[in-house]
Amino acid sequence: MFSIIKENLSNHIHNEDTSKVMGYPELGWFGSAVEEFGRYSTLRAWLESGYEDQYNNALRLYVKALKYFGFDWDEVENELKECKELLNSEEIIDKRMYAETRIIPRYTYSRVDSLGMAQIRHYGAINARKRKWVDLEAYKERFEGQALSEMLGECGLIAREHYKANGGKLEQCGEILGYRVEILGKVCRFDVEGRFVRFLRKRLCEEERGDLFVRVREKVQNTSHNDTAEKMGYTEFWRFKKGAEILGSCGSLEEWIGRGFYSLGMRASEFFVGLTDVFFDERGGRGASQKVSQYLKAM
Predict the structure, then answer these.
(1) Span 73-94, pLDDT tens digits
(2) How many angstroms separate the Cα of 289 from the Cα of each of 9, 256, 277?
(3) pTM here?
(4) How wide is the angle at C-alpha 132 spanned by C-alphas 199 and 158, nearest 5°?
(5) Is 281 helix (H, G, I), strand (E, B) or coil?
């Protein structure tokens, strides 16, 4: 894998977008790093070089390249295993694990709420969502000197411990359904027993807007409206059903937005973002609804 990454970096040495992804604001800094990287033939030699510049160290640069160019898990697993004593888990594993829950806390604006009450409820929902976070920095000693598969297994143990410590549910979030964490940029999903389930490789942000709309529409048509309405914060089922029926009859996202749907202070675009958050929260990794919002702003 190291040789493939080296070739990819060399081919992108004059690419400003790649430079920025690698953390370099200027091509000159990026070019110098790529040239230094190219002097080594193995990952161990590169990590042992002690390379460090203003923006990256040796491991951080390699990890960023893996995330950007993509990689085969088994191949990288074998490669990292050969030099696991040189690894820093903080560069490999995301700082947070996320609990997937039955309810995604959110506040839906109501006209009867005063501005002060609206702010209290809004920030209350944000704080409730933070209960879904599991701080992995508190467990960093458990990842020291471990290979990739061992780190994956340790994340599973932490997930199981968290589930048992909370009795399988979180306040305002309801039942815990599973866990996810990013390792080398891949979203890894675990069940509540801490067993690894699968990689969630395709990010929500990689989908075309039209494809995303079709997936949301199919979910709306084939998922229990009562359950979805509750997760969206609707207490009156008929209000959600009206929006779901209109969306289900639309042929595109543009048509749905053009219908001018509005319910409980929620515009058509916000309704759509809320649906993606409910249906595909596990697929989006971090900021799924924020990425969908970027689609809508581009319309």
Answers:
(1) 888 888 988 888 888 888 888 8
(2) 31, 18, 6
(3) 0.60
(4) 60
(5) coil
